[in-house]
C-alpha cells in the first residue's frame, strides 16, 4: 500500500515529504495544545450542569465494580424533555452522551460541534460541505513515508507537533490528511529495523550457502563524542551478491543478470568497554559475528592501522588490510617529517612546528585574538565570516593541509594583528636576533653599493627574510 497510488488515502509521495519546512527541535514554540486541553468542550455550552453523582460499573468486564464521577446535564433548548427535572447523565469528563442527545434534539448544531471538535474526524469546509479525515489505517502508508523521510534526512520526529504549521502545510495537499505522532514514528522505525534485519540475515544466509566461508569483507571503527563520555562502534559488511539469487529472495526482476554490491550496517552500538584495547575490540567483533551467524565469514577485514585493530585481528585469526585512504593519509605524515625516525623532512617539520606555534598564540592571548578579529573586520569581512587560525593535529592526518590553507586565507590579518603591518615585521622593529648562516652569507655576497642608505639596506634585508 505504501507504493500503490490507487490505495485509499493516497495523497503525497516521499518526494513531497522532502520539501517539508524544517524545524529546530529545540525551538520553544508556544504549545497551544495545553490551552485547548484546559478549555471546556464547546458542546457543554449548550447544557447546564444540574448535579453530580457516582456511577458504578456492573457486569463482569475489567471495569466491573469500579466507580466514576457522573455529571447530570439539562439541555438549554426550550421544550426539550432533558430538562432540570429529567437531566442527561454523562459519565466522566467525556461528551459522548451529550452528542448522542444533540443528534436527535439539534442535528444541525451537533454537526457543527462535531466539525469543531479536535477529537472528531468530521470537518466542514468553507462552502459548508462535510468531509471526514482519513483514519489511522488509511494514513499508515503516509506515516511510513514520513518516517522514511525523517530517517534518511536525519530529521527529528519532534516536527510532528501540530502547533508549528506542519499540519496545515500537509493539508494543503489533501485536506483529509494528518501527521503521525512521535510515538507512532518510533514504533514504525522499530518495525522497519526488524524488517531490514530479517532481509539482511536472509541475504547473508543465501550468500553463505552459495559460496561457503569466507564470503564477505567488513569495515569497522570506534569513535568518541567530544565530551569523551561515550564511544560508539560501527561495523559494515561488504557483500557482492548474485543478482539472480537476490531477485529470487526479494521477489523482483530488478537485479537479474547483475552483480549487486551491498554494504549493510550490521552493528551500531555503544561500546561498553571503557578501554579500547585489542582484546575488548576482538570480543565485541565476536559478539557481532555471533548475532548475524558470520563465524568465519570474514577473512580479511579492512580497518585503519591502529594497534588495537591489529591485535584484534590477530586474536580473531584474521588478516588485517589497512584501507587505502588511511595509508595515503599516513604517507603525508612521513613526507612532511612528522612521523618516522629519523625524520625524512626535518626542515618542513621545523617550519610547521613554528607555524603551529604562531597560530596557537591567538588561542592563548585575548589581545591577539581581538586584534585578529579587528583586522578581518577592517578588511571588509562580516562578523559571521570571521575565521580563527588552525593548529595542526597529528592525530588527524589532514591537519597539516587544514592549518596551511586556513592560515593562508587570513595570513595578512594574522601578520597585521601580531606586527602591525600586513607584510610582516621589518628588522628595524624586530628584537635583536642572529640571522641564520645561509641568510648572513647571502647578504654578505649581495652587499649593497657604497651609496646605498640604511633604509634601502633594511628594506632589502626584510624582503630577503620574507622570501626565505
Automatic annotation (TrEMBL):
UniProt feature, compositional bias: Basic and acidic residues: 21-39
User: Region (Disordered) spans which residues?
Assistant: 19-39
Superkingdom in the source lineage:
Eukaryota
Name of the protein described by the UniProt record: Uncharacterized protein
What is the organism of origin for this protein? Haptolina brevifila
Amino acid at each position: 500500500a505504501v507504493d500503490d497510488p490507487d490505495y485509499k488515502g493516497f495523497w503525497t509521495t516521499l518526494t513531497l515529504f522532502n520539501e517539508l519546512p524544517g524545524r529546530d527541535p529545540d525551538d520553544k514554540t508556544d504549545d497551544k495544545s495545553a490551552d485547548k486541553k484546559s478549555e471546556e468542550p464547546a458542546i457543554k455550552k449548550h447544557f447546564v450542569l444540574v448535579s453530580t453523582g457516582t456511577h458504578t460499573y456492573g457486569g463482569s468486564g475489567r471495569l466491573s465494580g469500579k466507580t466514576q464521577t457522573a455529571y447530570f446535564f439539562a439541555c438549554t433548548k426550550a421544550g426539550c424533555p432533558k430538562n432540570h427535572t429529567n437531566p442527561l447523565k454523562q459519565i466522566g469528563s467525556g461528551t459522548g452522551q451529550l452528542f448522542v442527545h444533540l443528534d436527535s434534539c439539534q442535528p444541525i448544531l451537533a454537526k457543527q460541534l462535531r466539525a469543531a471538535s479536535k477529537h472528531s474526524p468530521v470537518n466542514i469546509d468553507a462552502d459548508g460541505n462535510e468531509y471526514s479525515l482519513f483514519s489511522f489505517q488509511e494514513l499508515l502508508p503516509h506515516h511510513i513515508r514520513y518516517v522514511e523521510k525523517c530517517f534518511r534526512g536525519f530529521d527529528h520526529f519532534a516536527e510532528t507537533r501540530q502547533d508549528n504549521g506542519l499540519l496545515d502545510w500537509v493539508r494543503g495537499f489533501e485536506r483529509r490528511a494528518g501527521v503521525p505522532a512521535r510515538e507512532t514514528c518510533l514504533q514504525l522505525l522499530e518495525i522497519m529495523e526488524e524488517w531490514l534485519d530479517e532481509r539482511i540475515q536472509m541475504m547473508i544466509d543465501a550468500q553463505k550457502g552459495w559460496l561457503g566461508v569466507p564470503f564477505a569483507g567488513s569495515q569497522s571503527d570506534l569513535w568518541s563524542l567530544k565530551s569523551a563520555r561515550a564511544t560508539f562502534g560501527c561495523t559494515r559488511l561488504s557483500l557482492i551478491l548474485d543478482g539472480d539469487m537476490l531477485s529470487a529472495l526479494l521477489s523482483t526482476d530488478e537485479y537479474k543478470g547483475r552483480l549487486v554490491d551491498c554494504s549493510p550496517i550490521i552493528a551500531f552500538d555503544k561500546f561498553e568497554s571503557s578501554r579500547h584495547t585489542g582484546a575488548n575490540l576482538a570480543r565485541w567483533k565476536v559478539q557481532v559475528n555471533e548475532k548475524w551467524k558470520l563465524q568465519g565469514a570474514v577473512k580479511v577485514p579492512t580497518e585503519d592501522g591502529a594497534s588495537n585493530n591489529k591485535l584484534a585481528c590477530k586474536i580473531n585469526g584474521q588478516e588485517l588490510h589497512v584501507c587505502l585512504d588511511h595509508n595515503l593519509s599516513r604517507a603525508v605524515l612521513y613526507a612532511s617529517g612528522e612521523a618516522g625516525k629519523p625524520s625524512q623532512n626535518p626542515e618542513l617539520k621545523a617550519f610547521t612546528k613554528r607555524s603551529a606555534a604562531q597560530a596557537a598564540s591567538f588561542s592563548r592571548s585575548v589581545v591577539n585574538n581581538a586584534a585578529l578579529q579587528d583586522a578581518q573586520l577592517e578588511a571588509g569581512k562580516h562578523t559571521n565570516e570571521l575565521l580563527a587560525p588552525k593548529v595542526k593535529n597529528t592525530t588527524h592526518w589532514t591537519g597539516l593541509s587544514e592549518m596551511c590553507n586556513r592560515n593562508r586565507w587570513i595570513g595578512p590579518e594574522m601578520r597585521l594583528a601580531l606586527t602591525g603591518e600586513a607584510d610582516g615585521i621589518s628588522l628595524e622593529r624586530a628584537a635583536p636576533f642572529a640571522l641564520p648562516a645561509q641568510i648572513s652569507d647571502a647578504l654578505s655576497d649581495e652587499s649593497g653599493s657604497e651609496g646605498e642608505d640604511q633604509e634601502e639596506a633594511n628594506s632589502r634585508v626584510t624582503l630577503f627574510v620574507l622570501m626565505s
